Amino acid sequence: MAGPAVLRCTGLRKRFGDLQAVDDLGFHIAEGETYGLLGPNGAGKTTSISMIAGILARDAGEILLDGTPLTAASVGPKAGIGYVPQELAIYPDLSGAENLAFFARLYGMSRGEARRRVAEVLETVGLADRAKDRAKHYSGGMKRRLNIAVGMLHRPRLLILDEPTAGVDPQSRNAILESVGRLAGGGMAVLYTTHYMEEAERLCDRVGIIDAGSLRAEGTQRELVALVEERDRVALGAGGDLAAAAAALAEIPGVERADRREDGLELALDDARDRLPEILRVAAKAGAAVRSVSVTEPDLETVFLHLTGRALRDRA
Predict the structure, then answer these.
(1) Mean pLDDT split into 10-residue runs, the chain, 316 residues
(2) What is the Cα–Cα distance from 190 to 193, expressed in whole angstroms?
(3) SS3 217
């Protein structure tokens, strides 16, 4: 269960000329929680986290890290933040271990502490077996994992990851997601930005959907789906007496609608997968010969489409 709030921000605003990049943004992240900011490129995600990390001055709003106000001029509170930008911040001519040892000294760690911590984070991000190889010989995904290792090296209270899988191959992407998935277990609060709906579904305890600089909705995936009142959809490829089957299926308790289609039937209901045996039995009894079944469950892409009128991929 998530603990007390590590990050709390309210009323964040940032304008660049005529562009209102962030508009009244607010959310919180608890200890041990992974919070995802899900939105297309240009939605205001990077601007938001730049303000939260204290890199970019905000026009308005408040940011609290463990209850302490944070501004771009803050020094002490920033020590509790690990920031992993989209751009790589590693030295290619140093090995993975040497990169981490260098940053460990910048963080003020003793040699013994640095040695232990470097070994720990290399194991966490899956690079222990490549620790002595120069970073320039790493794949793109390995470089990004090393980037994450740098950000978490000093055990930050809040780790900010700005689209860490951008531009990597599927295998590397999966390795990065596995690495991130292990972080919150240690009590770290994680802020994860992405425009990949499946990443948010896989990693995040709660998700904030951001578009045009504003937070449109937030919650768990279940809460967000409930918010837009979408139902599971079942498509039956079928022949036979479709009219009779549609009428019979519509009488099943919990079925919101059952419609006849040119190539079969379509139903809208909750808990569709659990109800399939009953649906197939009723359809067959009413004279339908079912050839195929597909179930579509509401997801974050559905929620985003409902809230913004556009698919997430259309905006990316």
Answers:
(1) 81 95 95 90 90 94 93 85 91 97 93 94 92 95 92 93 85 83 79 87 91 91 80 92 95 92 91 92 95 87 76 51
(2) 10
(3) strand
